[in-house]
Amino acid sequence: MTLEVTESVCVLPASQSSPTPRPEISPKEPSAAAPATDRPTRPPAARTVGLSALAAAALAACGGGDEAGIASTSGDPVQKAASSQPISAEQAARFLHQAQFSSTDDEIDQVRTKGYAGWLDAQMAQPMTQSGWDWLISRGYNSAAGNILDNDAYADFMVWYQLMQASDAMRKRVALALSEIMVVSTTSIEGESCSFAMAAYWDLLNRHAFGNYRTLLGAIALNPAMGIFLNTLNNQKEDAATGRQPDENFAREVMQLFTIGLYQLNMDGTPRLGANGRAIETYGMNDVSNLARVFTGYVLDPTGHVKGTKPERYRNPMIIKANQHSTLDASFLGTTIAGSTPPAQKLAMALDTLFNHPNTAPFIARQLIQRLVSSAPTPAYVGRVAAVFANNGAGVRGDLAAVVKALLLDPEARRDPAQAPPTWGKLREPIVRCVQWVRTFGAAPKNGAAWLMEDQSDPSEGLGQSPLRSPSVFNFFRPGYVPPNTALASTGQSAPEFQITNETTVASYINFMEGAISDGIDGDKNTKIRVENYTREMALVDDPKALVNRLNLLLAGGQLSSATLATISGAIATIGSKSNYGRKTRIWGAILLVMTCPEYLVQK
After folding, report:
1. What is the pTM of this model?
2. Contact status, residue 443 vs residue 155, Cβ threshold 8 Å
3. What pLDDT shows up at residue 466?
């Protein structure tokens, strides 16, 4: 994908790639426990040096050609299998970038010592760390005070902290991927204890990240935040007198987005075609309206709830209110559920039907590959991972631990990037890039101060993306998105992350990261998430080549070309290093140039 991304990042018109704009949301004033923050003005000197050097590096990178690291299209064969022992630090770093967020020196050593499979087993065996719910309580956000009770900013603080600080980084990476498939957005969860409702949903995704997909489906179907987001909460049965019909939102999305998709699929994810040569739809409107009857009558469970201080009804699974539940038969996808069937049994039968549908394995397998490894996986790759979803080798369907392990150890994922076609890989999500910087260099507030990283989805001033802040149920980008008027479009290859990539977001990302690297993110002098000292990098400040080589390993997995390395080294060498500020600026500039060059932006 190197050539495609180089062209698109440099020149892709905003009008061709911008998603539907999210409506403006008035920020709510945080409480005294979490004071309001304003982003400080970035140091002019750092900004000037950084952007001037960036321009030179970007022009060189956008020049293309073999010197820019564009892969051959010779169709080299896929390596037979992933070795149990990585042969280089670069291989370990690349693996880590697919499996989690960062590749620090210690993390690279762990993978090289344990091997790919051993490292994965250790990560999956690690217990879930502090829940988002408990983190909110630890910060005192369980309060009935007016400026705390309905403040959704705490959900942002919570999820950024979890992504950036929790030791179970792989679990968090998979949970983030699931949150972009089974979307619930903080933007749409308002009112009492909204941040706790989002924390409960986030915790659910983490809890089941390495569990069974069927269990996960059951958990999200009864989750209050999902109930609010897709209208199953207080969804009432039909009423012939008024003409009221059950809300169909969740019924539609649980099929379209969470399980079977719009069109029938072969096991390798390719569409099944009818006699007319066209794709065959998986369901129709009657399927939706009938399935919707199953999801009626659900209300919040108030057990243990105390307004503000113990917001339990926002994490207790929803319960049935019998007089609001439909008693009509529900016929969908070839299954008929009698109206007299108990509601809990109806729900189980409906979810079993979706879970066992032949589409679900390739539909979910492909999206997980997209989120972690490559935007346009080959049918063979999808087929191998889907087969593991269908049967983990022990007769179990939907084993997410086995699925994630299979997609990360697959020969296509582990092959040398130089052997892959140019379209292989994925554009790194802005969230993932930012979290990588924090984890790689240990950014944090001073002395354990409050973690106040806010919603960063503003495309003109932030990252254009923020966890649990999707503008709609369709995430920030669609899995089938194809950038128009590009080389990818000519072959119909998907590149989802390009849906939020345009001139505005590219420039905003550069400015955001420049400020973060040199001065920190959000907060005041004590709460700002920043790196006080780039100690290991400072030891190399007088050797630009060695400094850039180190950053190439940690941030890009060694995938920057020799031409790009030389360009960045040359640019930062022009920054004087006699003064302390000059030495810092050289470090800042090197990190910024690596994290904004096209060869880094594409994870191979």
Report:
1. 0.89
2. no
3. 99
